[in-house]
Amino acid sequence: MPIRRSQSLVKWIFENQHKLQTVRYCSSSLRYKELEENAAQAQPEHVAPSMAAPADKPRPQITPEISFKHEDLQVRLAAPYQLNPKPEVTDLGFGKFFTDHMLKINYFKQLGGWQKPEIMPFENLSIHPAAKALHYAIQLFEGLKAYRGVDDKIRLFRPDLNMERMNLAAQRSGLPTFDGDELIKCITRLVQIDQEWVPHSETSTLYIRPTLIGTEPTFGIMAPETALLFAILSPVSAYYKTGSDGAVSIYADPNVVRAFPGGVGNRKVGSNYGPTIEATARAAKLGHHQVLWLFGPNHELTEVGAMNIFVVYVNEQGDKQLSTPPLNGLILPGVTRRSIIELASQWEDLVVKEEVITMDRVIELNKKGRLLEMFGAGTAVVISPISRVGFLDHEIRVPTMSQAQPVYQRVKDTLLAIQYGHIEHPYAKVIS
Fold this sequence. Notes:
This protein is an alpha+beta fold.
C-alpha cells in the first residue's frame, strides 16, 4: 500500500506540477519536504486508486475567509547586496526607479482562494506565456501616493477610495475581490519598510502601484482560476513636461474616443490606456502635450490624457462656477476629482456642478469672455492647468494662467496642504 500511495502521489504531482511550481513562490509555500511528510503520515485507508489524484491533496495554509489578512503577512527583507542606491530628487522623473521591496499575494481557486501575503525583495515576475493577463488584458491597477509631511510623518491620501475602485475593476474583469482594508494594511507595512524611499521634498512623492493580473496559463476568455496581486513602489516627481508658463496644451480629436457606453472607461484597467498612445503621439506632433477625449455627436468632454477635466467659467447668473463632466460610465471616478468636488463645494464664492460640457459650449464661453480656466486633475499630476485647446479649425486660448486668483491654484494648494500635513484632515491617513 505505501508503494501504491507513493506512485499515486508522484503521478498527481507530475500532472499538477505547474500549479505547485506557482504555489512554491507564495508566502504559504508547499515544499517538497512537506509533501513527503504528508505522504508518510497519511493513513492507508485514504489512498486513492492509482489512476486518480489522491483524495487528500496537500493544501497550503490559507486564511479561510474570502480575503487575505494582514495578520498573515510574512516579511522577507532584502539582503544588503540587494539594496538599490537612492536617486537624487532632481533625477526622479516618473516611474523610472523602484524601491527595494514589493508585496505579492497569490490567488488559487483550487487551493481555497487567496494565499498569505508576503513582502519580499523586489524581483521580476515569472508567469506562464499563456497567462490570461498577456492575451486578454485580464488585469487592472491602481495608483496612489505616500507623502512625507512637514512633520516627517508619512501619509496616504484616501486609500479607501482606491481600494473601492480596484475591487469594482476586479469584479468587472472576472478577477477575485478582496477586503480593501486588509490590502491597505499590507501596503502600509510595505511603505514603512521602504520609508526612506519617500522623498524628503514637497515636489516629489512615493507612487504606489497595486496591480492584479490573471495568471491562469490557459487560452479561453473566461474568469481565471489563478491570479496575482502585487504592489510596487516608485519615487516620482513631475508626470510630464509643461509649457514655459507651467500649463499644458491639449488636442481634441473628434475622430478618436477613449471610452464608450457600457465599456470600462470608469474602471482602471490597462486596456483603457494602451490604445491612447497613438493619438497622444499624433497630438504631440501638432505641438500639444495631451489629448482631450471627446464623445458623441455633440463632442462632449470626458477626460484629458489620464486625468479628469475641470472647467471654470462665469455662469448665466454671473457667478464663478467650477464644472466637471458627470460620472456616466465613460469617466474614471478619480480620487482627486471627488476630493476637489467635496472641498470646493464648501467654498461660498464658488458654484460647483457636475454637468455635460461640449466643445461648442467651451467655444461659446471663450468667445463671450466667460471661460476663465481649464485644468486636469489626477493622482499622478495632482493639478495640471490648461492654456490652449486645439479642436478642428479652432485654436482656443484659455486664460487659465492670467487669472489673479485662479481656482486651479487654490485647489492645488488645498490638496497639497492636506497631503503634506500642513493641515490636519480626515482625507490624510498617517502611517508612520
